[in-house]
Amino acid sequence: MDETASYPPIEPSNFDLIVIGTGLPESILASAASATGKTVLHLDPNPFYGTLYSSLPLNELTSFLRSQSQPLTPENDESTQLLTLPLYSSIEINSLSSEPIENSRKFNLDLSGPRVLLCSDSMIDLILKTGINQYMEFKSVDASFVGDAEGNLGSVPDSRSAIFKDRSLSLTEKNQLMKLFKLVQGHIGKESGEDDLISEEDLESPFVEFLNKFGLSQKLKSIILYAIVLADHDQDNLENCKDVINTKSGIDHLALYHSSIGRFPNANGPMIYPIYGQGELPQAFCRRAAVKGCIYVLRMPVAALLMDKDGLTYKGVKLVSGQELFSNQLILAPCFMIPSRLTPAAQVANSYDVGRRDAKEKVARGICIAKSSVEPEAANCLVFFPPKSLYPEQKTTVRVLQLSGNVAAGPSGMFVTYLSAMCDNAVEGKKLLDAAISALFSLPICGNSENNGIEKLSENTDSKPILLWSALYIQELTMFQDSFNSISFTPLPDEHLHYNNLLDATEKLYQKIYPNEEFLTQTNLPEEPVDDDSSELD
Amino acid sequence: MHGRPRKAPTQEEQEASSLKAVKLRELQSQLLNFHRNKIYTKEAVDISTKLLESNPEYYTGWNYRKLSVQNLLESALDSDSVQSILDEELRLVENALKQNFKSYGAWHHRKWILSKGHSSTDKELRLLGKFQKLDARNFHAWNYRRFITALKEIPDEKELQYTTDMIYDNFSNYSAWHNRSVLLSHLMEAREGGHSGKENVLGEEFEFVRSALFTDPDDQSGWFYHLWLLYQTLKREPLLITSWPSTGSNIQLSVNGYLDGQSLLPVLHFQSKARKYPIILCFNEAVEGVSSSTVTVECEYHAGDDLIWIPLSANKLDFAQAWLTYLNFPDEVNSLKPYSVKITVAHVPGITSLSGAPCSTTHTSFTVCVPLNDLKHAEVQTMERISWKEENFRARATQPQDANLLHSLGYLKITMENKPSASDWSMETIFTEIAHCRELLSATNCKIGKLTLARLLMAHNTLISYSRPNDGAEIHYDEILALYRDLMKMDPKHLCYYEDEYSLALLKQLTSNTESLLKYSYEYQESTSPSMKSSLCLRLNGLSLSRLGSMECLLWVQMLDLSHNKLRSVEGLEALQLLSYLNLSNNKICSFTALEPIRMLKALQVLDVSYNEIGAHSVDSSRYLCSSPMNHAVGNDWNFEEFANGGIKLNDHWDAFLVFKDLNLIQLEIMGNPVVNDQLKAFLFKIMPALKWLDGEKCN
């Protein structure tokens, strides 16, 4: 507490809401609350915005990962100190190049990558509705591929023109695939009262069975399930599949994907990515909150919670500066932990969403840096390794997003690749990521390299980019604390490629806290540059 | 851009547009005033700018603009001022196009300015890029693009790549496919002697478009391009396919036109005095330029005068598939010795198809026996009525000796010996396309795919007929007919088209070989009058025909029964110059003008058009290209006063007059048509003095 003097006191000291952490859900909530006239104080102990959703330079990323991997032990039993939840584990940083990475400060590495926006998803709608696109710029993801263990990348024919162009599909496959796309469009676009193109029974059945009925080849099924509908688990193995996608959600996702193509004239594909990283997104929401009167203080750790005399009712927070601030509501990023002494006994064991998900499940994330692209034709691209594509026991999809200097993921000439895969434990997670990495990159030969990758490497070494640096870590997906009385926790970064589920959870949380308030209404800002009406001649 | 429903204007929009209209009217009257008085002051020109920028559809405005530019250019002192005048025009057009990028006037004005030189074509390409981004199919932009690329001399290969990119972007682009066909035509033409070049190009293009067809079979743009490729594959030089008399035949003539003992004698009585004999040449497509200089006729006793070739075509163009001339036998020719006639169609510049391809050299030769010059005999004409009774027809097929007779005389010989064969490449290509089309149809039930398969099979049959005469193997007529029957059910909107195509395929099948044609061949003998007899009779009744085709195989027919079909038109009949008896009863002919081809049948004596729909529709909407005094196609020399007496007006019956005035009918059946009344009957007697029977009544 040496720096106490350097913290100026915050005025006023009473708020409707205090938010700790500037991750995406926290920022959206702060923005929504201040838009309805609430007084909001938004704090973050870090010197940067974004918390679990930030984009950081190389060294900051490593130190943040490490800081979030060990629990802070409480000073004493009586403490009301705010603790750190160990979210990350098995952190493994490899510097494979003999020289240090140049311009390491110029990287904007996403903590919870890979993640992109679908042009028609609810997140984009929210961005346009709130007008925060004026603070951001986007670039389209050039292409999607499906990969195999050898690193061969096949394109994903996801639109009519892509099907037409694709040389790897047979004529019959082209016909079948387009027929499916048309059926889905017809089904989604039908007027109420018209006959259903897809029966109710089919809609409830597993999507994979519907695709089988359609007579699609294994290759096409795999493309649709894992590269378009973005399934995580092996849908061919219905009995052991943890998340069977039914036809309804399958075609809903297909429809979302298709409506995303061509929504914005300058986006080629269905997906876009924010320049300077996904950390821009929480920051933009924070700016909007600030415009509406929210007070921001970074580098301000909270020392302890202030509880009522009964010791169970929340009153306010005590900052490391020693100042005490009070609010009716407190929202905490999920990387914080409240001493169990304070939480009602019944709530302790409850996970955030037990029942939907296997509590054991985690997500393995990886970040790779190389000097060339995994696919010469595309600078920013997605690669999907469906279950069983890397090795026979592979149970979940490995998703890969490569970004180049043109979205400022790194200095120009550098390529940053994010990987993620669902897993039950660190060993499985690392195996998934390692397999994908060795399929895509050639590793500089060194003593401790694992055996089976080497043979395959020698064949394609020259064409594959050389891996210079990598970080692998396991992130928890389940939180064992739930909101109680006036304290709420925002959701953890999920395993998905998009923000839809996060946004849903955030909106639900908002409505729980403020059941009578609207969630981010339309602002009357000038028309956005990404809007589809920018078809003027000049 | 396409397929978006138009929204009804709101109250405010309506008010705004009426306000705009008032302003525009004001500007327009000002401009017309300047235009009339040739005022090209800056103020006047500014008014026109204002007007055209808000309403580029005002064509007079553009004309005024052109005059003013010319006026300004005359007084322009240096190239800088010329440049600024033209730049101002380009700026105006650009603004006008922003208002409406499909304005013909604006695009035309831009072309006019560009053709003056001085302007940067690079800038034009950039502008086009913007317009094509707005609407990739905008054919104005594509048209202008062709103009600019020609001006800039951009190589066709580069432009071809551009269309590829556009098609990759969205293949549902008629304009891009069309431009591709234009560019490839140029490229294939330019590759001198590169026949294999053409084959490679077309092969690649078939593959390219196939991806589009399989991806979205319901999108028609690719199919249109496919049809163009198919046409290119089948395209060949025009050639002579049949003639009358047919090659190698041996014909005996008589003047009375009936069977004379055992010899078979076609009718010639109407020109018996001159002893003219018709010769007909049929080509595989409409050609022009058939004349005594392109066709040589070698005949021992030929009178030597230059033969005049007449195009047998219902329309007034100089193109026809069938051409007619008469061979004159001078009176001195008086022996029964056979004359041999040899006709050579020379490969000289002259006979060309609509696409300009020259005809290849072919020969045909036959022998003719000319009868004794017996004028008395010639004037004997039948007074009996043809009843068309069923029992009067005797099937040919049951009479082997008759069949042999017909064979030997070559009447049914329907292939030429010197037909050039189809190339292996086009045969293979059609095979491949048929296979792919079947594959597609097995996965997708699509109309245009079925239509294409039917067309491909038809093309296949045509190619086979070129290479192997009457082989009979792998002929797909039944499948084609089944496809068209399917299409009629699937797509009733285009029923008439499918019926027509069905009819053409059916006729092709019936005439494809001697055996099948024999089944429809009959001998006719009027029971009440044994002398009334015709052995060259064909019955194509009750076959649901809506259109005629394959007439080149029926040049020998003298008596034709087409009753109980669905004929809406008789186009094609004009080639049957020997036709004397024609039954068209119980069809769907709905106007006299639909019978126009019959005007050319100089041998026709008996016509039955009873129970059709003539007069049932006030306007014959099925035929919009018919001759009429209204469009000055006919009637310039008609005397409309001539028939004024007796209450008959030519005005009321000009269409009947058009068809019947030049015919020498002896017998006409016309009952069962709404148009028939006593007045019409009287009119018909008046214009056809030779008429003996009308609707079964003998006239005096």
Automatic annotation (TrEMBL), chain A:
Its main location: cytoplasm. Gene3D superfamilies: FAD/NAD(P)-binding domain, Guanine Nucleotide Dissociation Inhibitor, domain 1, Guanine Nucleotide Dissociation Inhibitor, domain 2. Keywords: Cytoplasm, GTPase activation. It is found in: Cytoplasm. It comes from the Eukaryota. Pfam families: GDI (PF00996). Substrate-binding subunit of the Rab geranylgeranyltransferase (GGTase) complex. Binds unprenylated Rab proteins. Belongs to the Rab GDI family. This is Rab escort protein 1.
TrEMBL record, chain B:
Keywords: Leucine-rich repeat, Prenyltransferase, Repeat, Transferase. InterPro entries: Leu-rich_rpt, Leu-rich_rpt_4, LRR_dom_sf, Prenyl_trans_a. Its EC number is 2.5.1.60. It catalyses: geranylgeranyl diphosphate + L-cysteinyl-[protein] = S-geranylgeranyl-L-cysteinyl-[protein] + diphosphate. PROSITE patterns: LRR (PS51450), PFTA (PS51147). Pfam families: LRR_4, PPTA. It comes from the Eukaryota. Coiled coil: none annotated. Signal peptide: none annotated. Catalyzes the transfer of a geranyl-geranyl moiety from geranyl-geranyl pyrophosphate to cysteines occuring in specific C-terminal amino acid sequences. Belongs to the protein prenyltransferase subunit alpha family. This is Geranylgeranyl transferase type-2 subunit alpha.
